[in-house]
TrEMBL record:
Belongs to the peptidase C15 family. InterPro entries: Peptidase_C15 (IPR000816), Peptidase_C15-like (IPR016125), Peptidase_C15-like_sf (IPR036440), PGPEP1_Cys_AS (IPR033694), PGPEP1_Glu_AS (IPR033693). This is Pyroglutamyl-peptidase I. It is found in: Cytoplasm. Its EC number is 3.4.19.3. It catalyses: Release of an N-terminal pyroglutamyl group from a polypeptide, the second amino acid generally not being Pro. PANTHER family: PROTEASE FAMILY C15 PYROGLUTAMYL-PEPTIDASE I-RELATED, PYROGLUTAMYL-PEPTIDASE 1. Keywords: Cytoplasm, Hydrolase, Protease, Thiol protease. The lineage of its organism: Eukaryota, Metazoa, Chordata, Craniata, Vertebrata. Its main location: cytoplasm.
Length: 181
């Protein structure tokens, strides 16, 4: 919500959605949003009661979903996409994004993780990565006030997403360059 108030740079069309903590809704909604917007990038943000930093997730996992969602439902297969790869990495270089955002000197600590937790955050991330062939990102944030304010988190997310877009555009320039030769 704070990011929606702040916005992103002028050439970025920002769409903000609140995704319910429900496996079946995620399986319907994420592909529908990709189809509707055909975005360059989707960045999911989830609150983690265990997080003390703003955490960039490198990958999403397909199996191991045993926790019941807000509708008391759990996928019988305990996976996101039957037959899908075990793990999908984001095409975004999270180490580079972390380093660049940390260098900005914001009053927020940014870290990296390779395990988004095998609950709805990880499930959403994997579903989006699968749908987008890796053009997704996931950021875990601590609960408000523990230790950051909404304003601090909003500014951090703004910086993170702008750096992600920068890294993505730069890597696409390199890919296009290699195809031309």
């Amino acid at each position: 919500q704070e990011l929606e108030k702040l916005g992103l740079r002028d050439d970025v069309d920002l769409h903000v959605y609140e995704v319910p903590v429900e496996y079946q809704t995620v399986q319907r909604l994420i592909p529908a949003l990709w189809k509707k917007h055909s975005p360059q990038l989707v960045v999911h943000v989830g609150v983690s009661g265990m997080a003390t930093t703003v955490t960039l997730e490198k990958c999403g996992h397909n199996v191991g979903y045993k926790g019941l969602d807000n509708c008391r439902f759990c996928p019988g297969s305990q996976c996101c996409v039957e037959g899908g790869p075990e793990c999908i990495d984001s095409v975004i270089d999270m180490d580079a994004v972390c380093a660049r955002v940390s260098a900005l000197g914001l009053d927020v600590t940014v870290t990296i993780s390779q395990d988004a937790g095998r609950y709805l955050c990880d499930f959403t991330y994997y579903t989006s990565l699968y749908q987008s062939r890796g053009r997704s990102a996931f950021v875990h944030v601590p609960p408000l006030g523990k230790p950051y304010t909404a304003q601090q988190l909003g500014r951090a997310l703004q910086a993170i997403i702008e750096e992600m877009l920068e890294v993505l555009e730069h890597s696409e320039d390199k890919i296009n360059c290699q195809h031309e030769h």
